[in-house]
Amino acid sequence: MTDQSPSNAASPQSIxxxxxxxxxxxxxxxxxxxAQRVAQVLxxxxxxxxxxxxxxxxxxxxxxxxALSSEKQLAKLAAETQIELRPTPIELLQQGVKNRxxxxxxxxxxxxxxxxxxxxxxQVAVVAKVRELLVAQQQRTGAGGGIVxxxxxxxxxxxxxxxxxIFLEAAPETRAERRRKEHEEKGEHLTFEQVLEEVHERDKxxxxxxxxxxxxxxxxVLVDNTAMxxxxxxxxxxxxxxxxxxxFARTMRRET
Length: 256
Ligand code: CDP
Ligand code: CDP
Fold this sequence. Notes:
Bound molecules: cytidine-5'-diphosphate
Helix content: 40-55%
């Protein structure tokens, strides 16, 4: 994976130490939009871990001979696959694209954003070996700290020692309506009921799987943004991050 350097790094006074910020939550809770905004304000790189599961799922769907129910085949596929996330250029950011995604060198940034790929992603994500490989890649990318990473298991498994963990929630109906609108803007007309069912099905699979299920880490701050916009939610998280940064500065001063 390509290292991503901060786009608008703040001054050393405003960021005494770079934090690892983990944002987890169910589909449509606003993780990508909010995490991207938080990263932009703090001058941190941003990583959408879900895009990696989606990219692998796309490859699995394109392989006619492969059964999504076969853990063995999916594990083999994951070991043979190269997934790379790159920062998003500004014009794509405005269209709601988060990271640019490359699958074995080919760009799949838009191709992975379909309901079929979302469902398949949650199927490949139940396979322990798949998670092991993708988690290791995510850990390498965030090893130096100073990153905002979002997904399902960032605060519980990928970075259990993250200095700030957020569990983002929103009512299922709100999440489904957000997703429906997104599809509509792309010219894909899905009914609210179709999207709600997709969201419920994926939530259930993500929350009930044996390996790294979607759960709130005990030390994660629960943020319900059902009635909050992206900007407002991001501002709240930035304030929490700035508090944590000050705590670090105080600890470091005491220690020196
Ligand atoms: O990444 P995740 O699936 O958690 O959600 P997202 O892709 O960031 O957000 C899904 C949709 O909801 C996007 O179109 C966002 O613009 C919208 N959204 C919103 O309207 N209000 C929020 N507080 C958060 C997201
Ligand atoms: O954007 P949305 O919240 O709809 O989904 P996503 O973040 O793109 O993730 C797609 C699927 O990948 C999820 O439904 C999960 O099954 C899986 N995933 C995961 O298991 N662990 C992560 N850290 C991120 C995503």
